[in-house]
Every structure is written in structure tokens, then in C-alpha cells.
Amino acid sequence: MSEETMSISLTVNGEKVSRSVPVRQHLVDFLRTELGLTGTHLGCEHGSCGACSVRVDGVLVRGCLMLAVQTEGSEVVTIEGLDATGEIADLQAAFVERNALQCGFCTPGMLMAAAELVRAGARNTRAEIRTHLAGNFCRCTGYHAIVDAIAATLDRRANGGDNRG
Amino acid sequence: MKPPKFSYVRAGGLAQVLELLEEHGEEAQILAGGQSLMPVLNMRLSRPKLLIDINRVDVLKGIGFEAGQVRIGALARHVEVASSPIVHHHLPLIAEALPHVAHLAVRNRGTFGGSIALADPAAELPACALALEARFVVASSQGRREIAAADFFKGMQATARRPNELLIETLIPARQNRIPVFLELARRHGDFAIAGLAFQLLLEDGIVADGRLAYFASEDRPTLALRALAAIRGQRLGPATAEAAVAALAGDLAPIENAQASAKMRFHLQSILTRRALAEAHARSSGQTRTT
Fold first, then answer.
1. How far from chain centre, in Å, is Cα B240?
2. What is the pLDDT confidence band of residue B187, given thresholds at 50, 70 and 90?
3. A56 pairs with which residues across the strands?
4. DSSP of A106-147, one letter per residue?
5. Phi/psi of residue B149, each to 5°?
6. Which tens digits make up the pLDDT trace of B38-70?
7. Candidate from A64, A70, A132 with C-beta closest to B42
8. pLDDT 10s digits, B84-116
9. Mean pLDDT of B241-265
């Protein structure tokens, strides 16, 4: 069977993009190889690890479990996009401050997942933060510091802090 | 790994999906939320010739309530079902079960119909559908038919849906005064369950008048425990009744064995969950809430 391709147009981090892609290419390979957005990582490639988390049309999804052709007309935001808009500058600063990353492989996915909690605006307990992050693996097992960084960011925002890092 | 080569159609309407299914049958796979299908493709455990993407078929979307029953469209995503006031009001069992379904990013994409049609033995929603006496509407280009949940699940990821049929929606009767209890055990929150149950009990003055006791993650399909129900029907809820249920449960369940748990361990865990669930039902019926 020959490689079937299809043309797609979508918005990635605010910019319009049009490409012809193999229909079997998943979203993360499209982002990484076609667009050079290598912040989104590929870990398990079957939906368990969360390293490939991205936002599609406003919601967090597994980038390895969606085909690029399915994003026709969609708005995709990657970690590069969140970084550029400053939406999570304070969360990123808290990760640095608390040493919430070791090898850094899981970090983009952790930040994408944590961003959902931060923008929901609730003052979650540590147990709730852990449940929320249950879909993201850190193979360095640095979970404690990651929870610290998210809890600190939630506290700071609840006390009227803005998102500046 | 990467998916094998396939052809892809982004379906624009139901008629197109049914035509394609008629033409390609088992060589086609339906792509709904993709949260189970995509891992299987990425691991090359399945090699369909054609993927039919139904995500833009609007008639499959939505949740509604009419004539005493809830309609859940096949494409209703877990996150929508979990936040639906209709589901919370009429189907609290499902509202209780959904937080156990995978993780946020998966619930954002995964669909109710996909979970039912896949019929994974460890999945929560097929067991809930069984406990709630749901009916599934499937369509082909020849017409539609309804299949009762009790007749739908045929084995390990096997159902009564024919290769040329598409699951359109799930219809669930809204019943008053039933006490729901949903419990499951998994190694990590959101992982596949290694034991689980979905109960729907009708109590009259503390006596079990009727109910449905559905178990999952122990058999090759969600299973109704008819003997356990017979053992508690007409009885007052309490420790002795719970023990009677557990004793009878041995005649209902013959758990599968795999790397996650032995048959003996699964039965042990289902017994523990049964005791907890009946205690919880008792507490709820007397207006208390108890954390299990």
C-alpha cells in the first residue's frame, strides 16, 4: 500500500499552517518533524506517559493518540506556545525554583498538564494535584518537587499573584 | 512505534459511514476518540485497511433526556458525560464511575460509544450500562436495531455489533429511588482496574427489593451477578447479608488470570469490594455518607 497523504490547514501557537501529511502521521510527529516544534516529547507512544501532552481546541490531549489529519481547522497549542504567551511563566519559574525537573524529558508534558490546574484557578490539595498528574510519568521520580512547584503556583495565584514568573 | 499504513476518510455524515462499513466490513475500523484504537495502531497490533473518522458526524453527539430515558450519543466524550447535569441527576452511577476512567487528557478525547463498542473487560462504562439496563442502538444501511446490554457483551472485546453496523447511541432508563455504588481497584489512579463493580439497588424499608450487581475487570466481559443478587433479595442490608452475597458470588464469577492478578486474587478483591459496596449502599439508604 502506498503512503496516503492529505492536505491540512490549522493554527499552531497562533500561526496558520498548511501542509500535506501522511494520513497515518500522529500529531506529535507532525509538530516535531514538519514544524520543528520539538518541545513536545514522544515517550511511550501509546498514551500512558503524558510526555506528548498538547492543547487542541482548548483542551489537553495526548498528541500521540491523535492523527495530524484530525486537526484540520483546529487550534493547537504546544509548550512553545504556552512559553511564548507567558501564560505559565510563574509555573515555569516555580519549577526552576523547586528543582522540579531532573532530566527534563517529562517537563513539557508536566507543564501542559499543570497549566490546566493553574488556569482552573482552584486551590487544590496535594492529593488532588497528584491525582491530576496521574497521567504523566516522571521516570526520574521527582514527583514531590513537581507537586511542590504546582502547589506554590496555585497558592501564589490564589493570593492575588499574576502569572509573571 | 508508528501506525502501519492505512487509508483514511473523514466522514461528513452518517450515511457515508454506513456505506463505507457496508463496503469494507471488518477491514475498516471506526476512529472515534481514538484513545484505545490509536495505541493499538501505534503498537501495530491491528492493521485496518481503512480508518473511518466519525468525529465530525454531528448526529452522533450530545446527551439528552426524553420520555423517561437518557440518550448518550456515541460521540459524547467522557469529559462531557462527567459534567452533564442530566447524567448527574438521572444516572449518578455513571457520574461516580467516570473519574475512574483513565486520565484527564484521555477523558477529553475518549467517547462513551467507543468504550461500549470496544468492550474492554476492565472498562467501567460497559459494567455501568449493564447495571443500568441500557440499550444500544446500532445502525447499518439496512436499518437500525436495539440491543440490550445483557445481550451485547459477548467476550473479550467482542460484542453483538455486526461489522457493517455502527453504534449510534445508548439509551438508559432513568429510575427513581435506586441507590448507585461504583467501586474499583487499580494500581494507579486512572489505570486499568484489577477489580471493580457497578451496583444499582432498590431498597424498600432497608430491604433489598431488586437491583443489578455488575462486575468488571475479573471476567472476559462485564458480568451480572445473578446468584449474589438472589442471595440478598428480600434481605435487610447488613454484615450477614454481605457475607451471603460474597458466598453466592463464587457461583457468578470465574475470574481471568493475567500478569496483573491471579484469578484467586481477583475474586478476593471482588469480595472485598462487594462488602464495601453493600455497606456503602446501607449508609446511603439511611442518609449517611461513608467513605470507602
1. 30
2. confident
3. A59, A76
4. SHHHHHHHHHHHHHHT----HHHHHHHGGG---TT--HHHHH
5. -55, -40
6. 999 999 999 999 999 999 999 999 999 999 999
7. A64
8. 999 999 999 999 999 999 999 999 999 999 999
9. 95
Nearest-CA distance A70 → chain B (Å) = 8
Q: Which helix (H) or strand (E) holds A81?
A: helix A79-85
Which residues, including other chains, have CB under 8 Å from residue B23's CB and lie 6 or more apart? Answer: none
Contact B214, B128 (CB under 8 A): yes
Chain B residues whose beta carbon lies within 8 Å of the beta carbon of residue A72 = 10
Residues of A in contact with B4 (CB under 8 A): 24
Q: Has residue B23 been placed in a domain?
A: yes
Please check whether residues B194 and B251 belong to one and the same domain: yes
Cell of A77: 497549542
Determine the residue of chain A that is closest to B103 in CA distance. Answer: A135
Choose from A46, A64, A150 for mutation: most chain B CBs within 10 A. Answer: A46
What residues of chain B lie within 8 A of the CB of A108, using their CB?
none
Domain A86-158 superfamily per CATH: [2Fe-2S]-binding domain (1.10.150.120)
Picking from B103, B93, B175, B92, the residue whose alpha carbon sits closest to that of residue B126 is: B93
Q: Is the predicted pLDDT of residue B176 greater than 90, yes or no? A: no
Interface residues of A toward B, Cβ cutoff 8 Å, are 1-4, 6, 23-26, 29, 45-47, 50, 53, 59-62, 64-67, 69-70, 72, 113, 116, 131-132, 134-135
**Domain that includes residue B32, residue range:** 7-53
Chain A residue nearest residue B35, CA to CA: A65
- Rounded Cα–Cα distance for residues A74 and A94 (Å): 31
Residue in chain A nearest B52 by alpha carbon: A70
